[in-house]
Amino acid sequence: MSDGAGTDLVDLVLPPAKRKAHETLSPAEKDIEEKGSSESDQVWGVDSFDGSGWDSSDEVPVDEEELEFYRYLRHLYKSRGFLLDKEMMPKNLFQGFHRLSLDAFFKLPDLTGRDYMKVMAQVAVDKYNKTENKTLTLDHIVRAVIRMSTGVKAYITFMARESPGGELVEYQAKTEKVWQENIHAILCRPAPKD
Questions:
Q1: Would you say residue 1 lies in a domain?
Q2: For the CA atoms of the chain, what is the radius of gyration?
Q3: Which pairing describes strands 152-161 and 137-148: parallel, antiparallel, or unpaired?
Q4: What residues are paired with 137 via a beta bridge?
Q5: Count: domains in the chain
Q6: Rounded CA separation 7/36 (Å)
Q7: Is 184 contained in some domain?
Q8: Bias category Basic and acidic residues: which stretches (predicted)?
Q9: For residue range 48-100, what is the model confidence (pLDDT) as tens digits?
Q10: pLDDT tens for each residue of 125-140
Q11: Which domain holds residue 38?
């Protein structure tokens, strides 16, 4: 905690072991993406929150600001990044995980958060269908939590149909775009029932 608010701790979520897994955008989608140079090598289907938790039982907060940050981390780890209630956001959080306003402008040319998350989630759905030999169809985005640093890492909750005409089922997708033209699918799975 370099600034007393503990904001640096959010970036200590360790990435899983690495191997290349990425998807390429269609020509139409490339028009809405910037071009760059780096690539991601996240392992498909591995959640960086697996096997990790945040326990502050040994740490005594020195002030209300630190206590607020501990609550935020506990909430973030419990939801594995996919749910971040507004009242859990520390007042002075500069970086880390944030709820995305789906209907607000997010990126040129005139994309809302919902539009951008739909593109990102579709990459994960396509990878899931190919890998698992499924026919999952994205219906709509419910919410998204993002982490901005060298790009966008998105934790997207969405509704999908597992078969044509099937019931809507809640799913989660985790994707990343690190300032290049490829969006990388990290995972796609049914939302946990808990």
A1: no
A2: 17
A3: antiparallel
A4: 161
A5: 1
A6: 28
A7: yes
A8: 28-38
A9: 655 555 555 666 667 777 777 777 777 677 766 677 777 766 666 656 777 88
A10: 999 999 999 999 999 9
A11: 7-190
Residue 142 maps to a domain:
yes
Residue type at 73? L
**What are the φ/ψ torsions at residue 124 (nearest 5 degrees)?**
-70, -40
Structure token pair of residue 130: 């190919």
Q: How far apart are the first and last CA of the chain?
A: 31
The pTM is what?
0.67
**In this structure, what token pair is assigned to residue 43?**
């392992």
Distances (CA, A) of 53 to 74, 108, 133, 183: 8, 36, 32, 27
Classify residue 49: in a domain, yes or no. yes
**For 184, what's the count of Cα atoms within 13 Å in the CB-facing half-sphere?**
23
112: exposed, middle or buried (C-beta count within 10 Å: 0-12, 13-18, 19+)? middle
Question: β-strand 168-177 against 137-148: which pairing, if any?
Answer: unpaired
- Token pair, residue 81, equals 């990044």
Beta strands in 52-167 (DSSP E): 97-99, 105-107, 111-112, 137-148, 152-161
Phi, psi of 78 (to 5 degrees): -60, -40
CA dist 95 and 116 (Å) reads 20
Exposed e or buried b per residue across 5-30, where buried means at least 16 C-beta atoms within 10 angstroms of its C-beta: bbbebbeebeebeeeebbbebeeeee
Residue showing tokens 């500069």: 94
Say which CATH number the domain at 14 has: 3.10.450.10
Residue 58, token pair as written in the block: 């040994």
